Amino acid sequence: MEPKENEKTSCNKAGDCGGCCNGCGEAPRGNLDCYDWLADTPIGAGQECDIVEVQFKNTRKGYYRNSLHIDLAKGDMVAVETAPGYDIGTVSLTGPLVRRQMAKAGVKPDAEFKRVLRKARTADLERYREAKAKENDTMIRARQIAEDLKLKMKIGDVEYQGDGYKAIFYYIADERVDFRQLIKVLADVFKVRIEMKQIGARQEAGRIGGIGPCGRPLCCATWLTSFVSVGTAAARFQDISLNPQKLAGQCAKLKCCLNYEVDAYVEAVKKLPPKEVRLETADNTYFHFKHDVFKGLVTYSTDKSIPANLVTIDARRAFEVIAMNKEGRKPESLLRDDEQPKQEKGPYADLLDQDNISRFDNAKKKRNRKKKRGTKEESPDATAQNTETQPRGDKPQRDKQRRDRRDRRKPADNQQQQS
After folding, report:
1. What pTM value is reported for the model?
2. What is the pLDDT of residues 215-225, one digit of tens each?
């Protein structure tokens, strides 16, 4: 079946066609893919926008003006204007939703935008593939050159421009690096224009991609665009163990997801009594030991440093006792008169069960022995014999039964001897 006119076709190998995302019909990887939910609505169809969003390698994207009014759709490979030359990218978004994405990215609508030159031709795509094929070897060679120059930097990625006249070197460095000599050497070796761009560890993880401990793709490689600083205070608010191996992500920094729920924890903690407040009763003084944010329970101990005589009450009861102490009254117990002491089931369980060595072992299943209820047909003689062998009655009766069985066997033995 031949494809219809103006219908996009997909392929299995990257770069074999130019009318689809990344040249292969697959959805673009990274946080640049945005679903155009206004495409099929009257609002989206009635509003026209001459600015399109173009995606390049990994997490880089830009906004270009379609001044020639080329019929562009999401997934088209286009040649865009750069200084110098041109670059090849994939159209990732069109229509009125582009302006919303510009506002989200902080791009002003009255700024000067470079133009979309044309749809990528066959010659443009061939040149683009040739330039992309050199990126890995260029990165390895550049790392060797930087090591020879004794520069404290790591070149994490190299991106060639679509026409092959320019290369962007992404590097990571903890301190300022003087790479002027490096640029001269790289320009002499690769014969292209060199641009150095410093990125952080989080940006590098987003460019490389990967799977997080939650089993899903990294947030920095899928949708996260702004990297907010993450502190250990976020872990403390959520009562997470300050274990660097669990708190650090693939970028060796604190996980960005620690900030996702910290605001909800902060609001929930406000509904609990302060940790430094002591509760006075008629016989003891109780100190804060721990609390459960989800259930609203607070556990108090009679010793400030070690758990002793633990009593768990809800937050409302704790506030009642605090109000009674302010009035100079001391209750008989932290528990209410009609309340039973809550027995704790043990320490908090590790939801991921990461510390258990035998978590991969199969649990031993108890085998239930089922009684076999067979329907075997037994002969009358065997049934009679089984019945006779069963001990029943007193001893004289059993002796009589033995004599009868012996008398029945004698005729059979005599017949065998005569034969």
Report:
1. 0.58
2. 888 888 887 87
